[in-house]
Amino acid sequence: MQYKTLLVKDLKAEFRTKDMIVSMGIYAFLVIVVFGVALSFARPGSEFLEVSGGLLWALVVFTSLLGLNRSFAKETENGCLEGLLLAPLDRGVIFLAKATSNLVFLAVVEVIAVPLYWLFFASFATPAETGWMIVIPLLLGSIGIAGIGTLLSTITASTRGKDVMLALLFVPVIFPLLYACVSATTCALVGGDVFADGFLTSLALGAGYDVVMILASWVLYDFVVN
């Protein structure tokens, strides 16, 4: 019940103003445009697809950083976070609700940005190579980014230069997950015998990382907010 109440609060507050989603969506579009211009003279082919998988995750990471920096803005500005900590709430519930709302907002932006990415960088690939097999790495990566990013954004919410601090903490911590997701996405885009190329191995690495790090974030959240 507490989890549902906190989650609904975050969702209603964001969908009423759409500040975070609009900012993330515009930023994602601009990143795609910059990538498109930078690679406008590249020749489409299998080598290009090997690069475009990494571009997709660069887009996701940069966009998620913008959203995570803003995820605790209202709580810190209006004293809402202190009120939540004074309430008789399990700190783990606060973490799960905030991580879920961050995941929802990131997913909404991805629904808009990923088709644009596909149009720019992977439209010459067959649908079988760019369909459901890209969705699975995106789901695993987004869950990990939302969970770990929520913990780190809580740590940096009240620090000076929080934008830079979050990036400095977030990118090294998320690197194993990022590597696994880029590998799986590249296997899906290039096609062929994706299982022999490491698709399943990359997914297993990403899933294991998600489980371990999200559990650790949930356990440590009480210590972090106190």
The ordered string of helix (H) and strand (E) elements is: HHHHHHHHHH
Give the end-to-end Cα distance, rounded to a whole number of Å. Answer: 23 Å
Strand percentage lies at: under 5%
How many strands appear in the DSSP assignment? 0
Helix content: over 70%
Q: Please indicate the count of domains.
A: 1
Low-confidence stretches: none
Largest sheet: none
Q: Roughly what is the average pLDDT, rounded to an integer? A: 82
**Helix-strand makeup class:** mainly alpha
Determine the number of helices (DSSP H or I, runs of at least 4 residues). Answer: 10
Shape annotation: globular
Radius of gyration: 18 Å
Pfam family, one: CcmB
InterPro entries: Cyt_c_biogenesis_CcmB (IPR003544)
Membrane topology: Multi-pass membrane protein
Transmembrane segments: 21-42, 48-68, 103-125, 131-152, 164-192, 198-221
Features:
226 residues; mainly alpha; Heme exporter protein CcmB; membrane
Topology of this structure?
Blueprint (H helix, E strand, L loop, with lengths): L1 H16 L1 H20 L7 H26 L1 H5 L2 H7 L4 H31 L5 H4 L1 H25 L5 H29 L8 H27 L1
Helix pairs in contact: 1-6, 2-3, 2-6, 3-6, 3-8, 3-9, 6-8, 6-10, 8-9, 8-10, 9-10
In short:
With 226 residues, this protein is mostly helical. The protein has helices spanning 2-17, 19-38, 46-71, 73-77, 80-86, 91-121, 127-130, 132-156, 162-190, 199-225.
Overview of the molecule:
- The protein has one domain.
- The longest helix has 31 residues, at 91-121.
- Helix 2 (19-38) packs antiparallel against helix 3 (46-71), helix 3 (46-71) packs antiparallel against helix 6 and helix 3 runs antiparallel to helix 9.
- The chain is an all-alpha fold and 226 residues long.
- It starts with a helix and ends with a helix.
- The chain contains 10 helices and no strands.
- Helix content is 84%, strand content 0%.
- The chain is globular and about 60 Å long.
- The protein has helices spanning 2-17, 19-38, 46-71, 73-77, 80-86, 91-121, 127-130, 132-156, 162-190, 199-225.
- The mean pLDDT is 82.
